[in-house]
Design a protein that fits this description.
With 628 residues, the protein is an alpha+beta fold. Helix content is 34%, strand content 29%. Helix 18 (589-596) crosses helix 19. The protein starts with a strand and ends with a strand. It comes from Mesobacillus subterraneus.
Length: 628
């Protein structure tokens, strides 16, 4: 896919001009709530489209700056690719700016631009002092080397230059993974009159398409993506990096809440105990003791829990990266590498943040042995890193494995000999466990299809692939189908795929009426009435007549002469034998009429059917028997 999708965030202290700057860049006022208008502060996340061309689409998240809305701020920042740190020229760096900087660092944001706003309110010399102040505060942060942009949202000074800088920066940046399974942490839930339940969020990874079956985690409720919108415009698909609104069927507004996650795969882990690597803020105000109550912000979820240490009983200052565990009061959805923030609920302050080492944490003993095991988990063996990369992406080339695991080619090739890895094409590999899972998924899909379409020989291969290609590569799916055929699990007939144990059949409820239809057709020999008359007489409704005709013809029970007449299969075969016995290598219509004793009403459709089936070939007024 050539087009790339990104979401950027506006972060900074309250009243430093984030919303005004967003409006200047996008012409969209993201403060939409009545309370936001009245108080002139952002309470909820605001969203707007910034830029789009054939190669790039960029969205903006306007993050609330007030300390009371820190949850919304974390939820908004967690899914973005670049941050514009907004600092007002007339105030400089403020306490909330520093906290935002800490959070951005803990969440792994690596790309940023500093926008000094309200430059028309101060003298030019004062701006240089503000720059120096900012540089001092940004030392040893992710923004240490970020470029400065001077802007004024009211006069539009510097706005076009800032927009160009954002676009140029993202053109050089890699987008999120669209090959992996779809994941969207929900940050807004609402209803639309006449449409039902809608959720909104940033697509963290993967792709979702209209009509796709999805699952809400951690509850496990199954839903369908009835409609999609990207920036209030209908869309057939939404990709990683995009802001998307999804109209869901099969669920009510009351069954959903912010913090839950919409996914396309059962591979995602639901857990309440996670092993983590955490760093704390430099100026921590209060002692963090063993099992201190905390709020964990991960994705868009905010969950209470406790922090558990295995090498200490308290934490007061920056001690580098600490390996520990978070035991949460509620289930969350996460995987290795996900970023999180930990805050103290009372008194409120940001303690620190980090990344998930293992989402499947267990209870461990206090002591050095546990710390050594956590260190091993953190580093990850080459096989574990390859396993994690393939578990996420489902299939990768060697070049992609090198990029995702930071291993050299020699190490990857050596470890690919392990039984858990399978070569699915010339250069592409997948996990045995993933292959087994997809194989079972295909089996389930075919079983469902057979139960609802008993008379069809199977599911169109193209249709089967289309239902799965949003989550898995075509090469992986082709391998699994071919492998299933070689194992005798699946059968391929022309363009159809079926389970090997399946045979097309008339549903039991229609067996007697079908038998009546066939017997009547058989009784009338070659002098048949319209086929629709037989169908009506047998009591077969229009809703299944087309399917039944196709089935009976596929099974050789009948042969359609044209769209009106059909013969019983054995009668058709006998007519062919009779014609062949009474004619030579070539014959005319008159000779055929004499041989099978048919009027032109049936004779011409019969002869044309012979042509279409390849028995004969028409040349001018004659037909030639073809060798079969």
């Amino acid at each position: 896919m050539s087009k790339r999708y990104f979401t950027i965030g506006m972060a900074g202290h309250i009243d430093h001009g984030k919303t005004s700057l967003t409006k200047a860049l996008t012409n969209v006022d993201t403060d939409r709530l009545k309370e936001e208008k009245e108080r002139q502060i952002s309470i909820e996340l605001g969203f707007a489209p910034l830029y789009e061309d054939e190669e790039l689409q960029i969205s903006v998240v306007d993050v609330p700056g007030h300390e009371r809305f820190i949850r919304q701020m974390i939820a908004g920042v967690a899914g973005i690719d670049l941050v514009v740190l907004v600092v007002a020229a007339d105030e400089g760096v403020m306490p909330q700016t520093r906290e935002h900087l800490d959070i951005l660092g803990f969440l792994g944001i690596r790309s940023g631009i500093i926008a000094i706003t309200k430059i028309d309110r101060v003298e030019e010399d004062f701006i240089e002092l503000v720059k120096d102040d900012i540089l001092g505060e940004l030392k040893d942060t992710v923004f240490e080397n970020a470029p400065f942009m001077l802007v004024d949202s009211l006069s539009k000074k510097g706005i076009s230059e800032l927009k160009e800088r954002i676009i140029d920066t993202l053109k050089e940046q890699e987008m999120r993974d669209v090959k992996g399974a779809f994941r969207l942490p929900i940050d807004q839930v609402f209803t639309v009159k006449g449409q039902g339940t809608v959720v909104r969020g940033t697509v963290y990874e993967g792709t979702v398409e209209e009509g796709q079956q999805l699952r809400v985690l951690p509850t496990g409720l199954e839903v369908r993506a009835r409609q999609l919108q990207v920036h209030h415009q209908p869309a057939k698909k939404a990709f990683a990096g995009q802001r998307a609104a999804i109209n869901l069927s099969g669920i009510s507004r009351d069954e959903l809440e912010r913090g839950e996650v919409l996914v396309s795969s059962e591979h995602f882990i639901v857990t309440n105990t996670i092993d983590v690597a955490i760093r704390v803020v430099e100026d921590l105000d209060h002692l963090v003791k063993q099992r201190t109550p905390i709020k964990c912000h991960i994705g868009t979820a905010e969950v209470m829990g406790r922090i558990v240490f295995f090498d200490r009983n308290e934490l007061k200052e920056d001690n580098g990266e600490i390996l520990c565990q978070l035991r949460l009061d509620e289930k969350i959805v996460t995987k290795r590498g996900d970023r999180f923030i930990v805050r103290r609920p009372s008194p409120q302050e940001t303690i620190g943040g980090g990344w998930v080492i293992d989402p499947r944490g267990n209870k461990y003993r206090f002591g050095q042995q546990t710390m050594e095991e956590l260190e091993k988990k953190k580093a990850g063996t080459p096989i574990e890193r390859m396993n994690a990369a393939l578990y996420e992406a489902k299939s990768l080339t060697i070049e992609e494995l090198i990029k995702r695991t930071a291993l050299d080619e020699q190490s990857i090739l050596a470890n690919l000999k392990d039984d858990q890895f399978v070569k699915i094409s010339n250069k592409e590999y997948a996990l045995t466990s993933v292959i087994d899972f997809i194989e079972e998924d295909i089996k389930d899909r075919l079983e469902d299809y057979h139960s609802g379409n008993a008379m069809r020989p199977g599911m169109y291969k193209a249709e089967l692939l289309q239902t799965l290609q949003t989550a898995f590569s075509r090469s992986l799916l082709e391998f699994i189908i071919d492998n299933g055929i070689s194992k005798g699990l699946f059968v391929r007939k022309d363009q159809y795929i079926s389970l090997s144990a399946f045979s097309p059949h008339v549903p039991k409820s229609w067996e007697k009426r079908t038998e009546t239809l066939v017997n009547e057709l058989k009784k009338d020999g070659l002098q048949v009435a319209y086929l629709n008359d037989y169908l009506k007489k047998a009591g077969i409704p229009d809703s299944i007549s087309i399917e039944l005709k196709r089935f009976l013809e596929d099974q050789g029970v009948i042969v359609m002469l044209d769209d009106q007449y059909a013969w019983y299969g054995e009668h058709f075969a006998e007519a062919v034998r009779k014609l062949k016995d009474h004619t030579k290598d070539e014959f005319e219509v008159s000779q055929a009429k004499e041989a099978v004793e048919l009027s032109r009403k049936y004779l011409i459709p019969f002869l044309e059917r012979l042509d279409s089936l390849g028995y004969t070939k028409r040349i001018d007024n004659k037909r030639i028997w073809k060798k079969k």
